[in-house]
Design the sequence.
């Protein structure tokens, strides 16, 4: 099957037709939004009648405060729903990444924590573990070997060489070993 190419005049005509239809839809949507806004404002905000007495003024203030409280509750509820939805979206994104096999390592904050605090956080507050690392170390006593003492006591190296020089020195070495 050979594909026919559309002429540029036909493309231009279709494009202008689509744009005119889209413009009409946008204007219609905008007029619907204005009607909806006017209806909502008339429903929630009736025209204010200015009170003439102090009692009427106080009553009007109470009504306004009550409406503000109701609106704040709605705003708070909507914020919580949005936050919950965001968390669910993040969890689902992580699940999708796990399934796909490509996981981006999240950037973690550096936290300074002692070993005791870390164990307490991991094990909970019921298990109190005290890490005194110095108490767990083995104590090693330094033993001074006799050979090291001899080496220190030798003193001048020239005198030591003269004593071992010749046959008498070798004889003394063998006698000392035996």
Sequence:
């Amino acid at each position: 099957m050979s594909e026919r190419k559309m002429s540029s005049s036909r493309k231009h005509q279709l494009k202008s037709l689509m744009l005119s239809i889209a413009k009409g839809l946008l204007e219609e949507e905008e007029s619907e939004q204005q009607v909806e806004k006017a209806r909502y404002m008339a429903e929630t905000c009736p025209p204010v009648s200015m009170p003439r007495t102090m009692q009427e003024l106080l009553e009007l203030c109470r009504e306004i405060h009550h409406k503000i409280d109701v609106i704040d509750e709605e705003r708070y509820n909507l914020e919580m729903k949005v936050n919950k939805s965001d968390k669910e979206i993040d969890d689902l994104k992580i699940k999708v990444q796990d399934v796909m096999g490509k996981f981006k390592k999240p950037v973690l904050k550096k936290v300074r924590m002692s070993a005791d605090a870390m164990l307490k956080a991991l094990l909970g507050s019921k298990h109190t573990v005290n890490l005194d690392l110095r108490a767990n170390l083995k104590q090693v006593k330094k033993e001074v070997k006799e050979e090291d003492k001899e080496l220190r006591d030798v003193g001048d190296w020239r005198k030591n060489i003269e004593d071992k020089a010749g046959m008498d020195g070798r004889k003394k070495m063998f006698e000392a070993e035996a």
About this structure: The two ends are 110 Å apart (CA to CA). Helices lie at 8-44, 54-100, 115-123, 133-136, 146-154, 157-164, 166-177.
